[in-house]
User: What shape does this take?
Amino acid sequence: MSERKKTNIILFSGDYDKVMAAYIIANGAAAYDHDVTIFHTFWGLNTLRKDEKLQPKKSFMEKMFAKMMPRGAEKMPLSKMQFLGMGPKMIKKVMKKHNAMPVSDLVDLAKEQDIKLLACTMTMDLLGLKKEELMDNIEYGGVAAYIADGEDGTINLFI
Amino acid sequence: MNIEKTLDAKGLACPMPVVRTKKTIDDIESGQILEVIATDAGSKSDITAWTKSSGHELVDMKEEDGVFYFYIKKA
Assistant: This one.
């Protein structure tokens, strides 16, 4: 068998629609038998956040960040047409009608397809996110981990 | 045509038809034929492109009233 191709996505954004695009591409690439890595940094890290309210020891600033950031993709705003929270509700309704998968399901599907979910530890520190707040069975790394996957990637995206 | 397995992907939206096709084709043997039925308009180019890239052969394809039928021979 020929060497497997690689798809690498840097997920920087924390908007529901952009995360959805990233995970659709990732799952599609996995179906193409690519080795897929999603490198979550900055606001994209919130995709990996657990839904439950955890209270690890944090500084005042970190607590503020934790309060303001969404716990998981389903709580994210849209990049356009947010309408004070009405936007996400409307798009989810339309998605249901068209049988599009919610982002949380796309994340589960990504795990099922052995997509590597990587969390950037440097930005985790900046945003005050602790490992216990993020999903289990993900990997942690920095720029070198991304470059290692990215340097021979067929598809490299920054979303 | 001897169809080994049928995948009903009707009503599923992108990226599911391709994801399911990939999963289902893993269950059949080389040379056998998988039938995929989908309604997603994008699946016409999606399944065609996927089949080509993954080395399988699209033996036949037809469209009836917005429903797509694909016949894929596993490589």
In short: Chain A has one domain: 6-158.
